[in-house]
Amino acid sequence: MDASKLLNPERRMLKMMQSESSKDWSLQEILSACDWSDQAVAVGAGLGLSNTGLVVMEENVENLVKLSSQGASALENGLLESRLWSWISSTDNADMTSLQQSFERHESGPGVGLLKRIGVQLNGGKFVSDNSAEVEQIISQRTSFLTSLPDLVENLDSEMIEHFRGRKGFIENQESITRTWKITELGLSVDSSSLVEKKTITEITPELLQSENWRDAEFRSFDVTLESATPRTGRSHPMQALIERIRNIFLEMGFSELVEDYVQTAGWNMDALFIPQDHPAREMQDTFYLDNPSKMELPDDVMQLWSDIHKHGGDTGSVGWGGNFSKDTSQKGLLRTHTTVNTIQYLADNPSMPCRMFTVDRVFRKEAIDRTHLPEFHQIEGIIMEEGANLQMLVTTLKTFYHKMGYPEVRVRPAYFPYTEPSLEIEVKWRGKWLELGGAGIFRPEVTEPLGITSPVLAWGMGLERLAMLVLGLDDIRQLYISDLEWLRNQPIM
Predict the structure, then answer these.
(1) N or C: which terminal CB in the chain sees fewer CB atoms within 10 Å?
(2) What phi-psi label fits residue 262: left (phi over 0), alpha (psi between -120 and 50 degrees) or beta?
(3) HEC-encoded secondary structure of 456-477
(4) What domains are defined for the chain?
(5) Which pTM value belongs to this model?
């Protein structure tokens, strides 16, 4: 074998392996002996020596099971069934109502299913078990399994693997490849004195040619047939690009953009829109109420108008909602649950000025995170206020917007919202199916008349993330916010 054809890394590796010819060299041993930090250099040198028959390489593939994000969280905080069972064992009133009060909504529902599968049943409205020892044993086995990870598949209980594979995000498989190298007789026959590393020249310059240092040097080889690397340039995130596209469409349609704060009062967020104070959506489980500021002052005359509207309809001819109206409730601070809170304030400040406004901005709701829900998301919202505005104008505006977005087939169907009448839902046809993307309608007199607005107000709201999932062909809303550079680079330019 002519050592002159070897590259410097190959020479170094072969020389080291000649010093212990009977040894099976691992990757870490090669790195240490050759004083390398880059694994790619060692693997590349080993491959080159294998191709020339100077060493033989063996690969051992191992399948590992390791914790995913949900599994790590469960191990740190306790499995859901473990926490539920501890609660059941420590309380005398372990019924469904108490469970829902003690645990988050996204835990109580799945948790009951987990309990039933390990022998905990609802009997007479209370959680009981015929065999508490067995329940505790199952929970202990599951906890021990998670604690033992990572480990090889063959070392683990197959039933446990199957169980946790059925629980999204608990475990994942990882393939581990271990390489070893051993020198051959041909490798041993290479004269070690010929394995001297030479200076490698990667660039030929006029100075190099004049110095004649190139005569005894080694030139780096290049494969000119390989494709060049794809140049990577900066670009907008798909979500930001989509927002800009939507902005441009509304601006082209003659709308103006409204940008306001997302810290608001419950009064403007809900009372002004004729949402009753006992509406379920106003509860803590749906709305982010603030500790600071917990209260934001509102004018007494405005709150009195809302109070009259809610109690008996004021001067609108409506009967209202009846019951009591709390001014303290109106002044609670919260993170806005929709952007209509800002447009209604704009209308209150400009009750007689015709306008066409839109907003694309963040809103906040206490949602359990899953493939279609996030606690923080974006809303596309718009209004038209002018004399003669009607339902046909609203439908035409929405159809025009979606047509410009690339969805020519749009339909509407009747719906109900507390603050619009008539109300409708907007659907577009996507992959042969009708998908609901938002709601719309004409503000009720209970919303507009207390503010001094006499013209009809057309309003609509739609979720940006849901539209983004359609545009980008995604099936999980969380994919919009992952830090996967390859995925981001491959997204189409909006």
Answers:
(1) N
(2) alpha
(3) CEEEEEEEHHHHHHHHHCCCCH
(4) 3-65+176-219 (1.10.10.10), 69-169 (1.10.10), 240-262+336-489 (3.30.930.10)
(5) 0.54
